[in-house]
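User: Here's a protein and a ligand (iron/sulfur cluster). What would the complex look like?
Assistant: Let me lay out the input and then the predicted complex.
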Amino acid sequence: MQPPTRQHPDPLGCTAAEYVTASVESRSVGQGAARAAYRRFHREGVAPAGDPPGIHPIGRREIEGETIKFTLTLPGDLETESVLIPMRRRDGSVTRTLCVSSQIGCAMGCRFCETARMGLLRNLGTSDIVAQWHAATHQVGHRPKNIVFMGMGEPTDNLDAVIPAIRVLADHDGPAVAASNISVSTVGNPNGIRRLGDLAAEPGFHRLNLAVSLNAPNDSIRAEIMPVDRAWPMDDLMDAMLGWPGRPKSAICVEYVLIPGVNDGLEHCDEVCEYLRPLRCSLNVIPYNPRRDSPWPAPSEPSVRRFTDRAIENGQFTKRRGTKGRDVMAACGQLGNPEIRRRRRVTTGDLIPVTVRADRKAGEGIQAYPPA
Ligand code: SF4
């Protein structure tokens, strides 16, 4: 059944300028009143008169220490998943980063990822994405400083919703999250990177951050753990990354999930550093978070240190990411409700042809590591 047509614009799904234009046309309100209603909704959580905005109720909420994972319940008994991650500053104060989902499930099939096992259930709309910020701020009660598109889904697979959502999130009359505090993480879709690059070339978005999941030193290992590599090999990916506009000093964040026995050798490290040499980037090493039924353990602390030390010796700017949220399955690559993931998967026209079987074990077919 089609949802009823809205009489009034949804402030979650449009910028202030769009909201004002649509409100003036549909409700004969003045521009000033419409802008004030938009601002009040985003800043104070007070819904404007007329159709209620597309706010979704919070479903589950799980807390590990100061990390909060929450779900929003969508029509069709589906849910988004979001994570609020605390960042403690040197002065002891805490800011929070919100990790948002751009899809329910994901079609990309990365073999180390919990979400991949769901397949793609559906794309989220712009308002569904912004609703996660709104819920964090006005329902959970923590206004995030940073937003990262690293939750469920591949953002470049849903850019028609993700790019407008970034515009809303950055709107001065709306959430007002600076573009420099927004990061989009992609599996490495060159065309998607170029489209995001067009946004980053616009005034006000120069400092938008790009993160790319590399996770392997060469195409043969990458194709084993990330089927997308067969469609978008690393040369194409490098070409797109080199074209990223950004601000003059900006660095792309290259993510590298370190998986024992698959990509954590020193020779792998050397190869990755060689690949990244032409690019101004930060290599972000992420210790693998074992997902349910994982064939791989988490890497040992010495092996993580060995890898990062070697990258630094190679002259590569390198950081190591913590693993907040591991216990509530809220860490990188771990979002995805096992109940929902049993449901039917869908595909959209834009997807690269990756077959994801819900019953496939992560890592199946990879020979590089003896089964755990
Ligand atoms: S790691 Fe990201 S792109 Fe890969 S399957 Fe998981 S959610 Fe999708």
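Summary: Residues 106, 108-110, 113, 115-116, 152-154, 187, 333 surround iron/sulfur cluster (CB under 6 Å).
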